[in-house]
Write a structure and sequence with these properties.
mainly alpha; 2 strands
Length: 83
């Protein structure tokens, strides 16, 4: 009886492997959801020119021709100072 419970491939080992399998399945579900979101993002970047432009502006700091960007310094309290 002890061999069935505690031996190699016994019920305790089987229980541990089942828990490990459940953890891996949860990780796989999370990765599939992340992949789905990334695929949607890629599709939107390819198909939606305005969205592509907004991402480029935000992430890369790009500007249009003849466009001016104003940057405001912050004072020591973290408030913006405008001149």
């Amino acid at each position: 009886m002890a061999w069935i419970s505690f031996g190699r491939h016994g019920s305790i080992d089987l229980y541990k492997m089942q828990k490990e399998k459940e953890e891996y399945l949860a990780i796989i579900r999370d990765l599939k959801e992340k992949n789905r979101l990334l695929a949607a993002e890629i599709r939107r970047l390819k198909e939606d020119k305005e969205y592509f432009e907004s991402v480029a502006r935000k992430e890369l700091g790009l500007i249009k021709e003849n466009e001016i960007i104003y940057r405001f310094k912050k004072d020591w309290k973290g408030n913006e100072k405008r001149k």
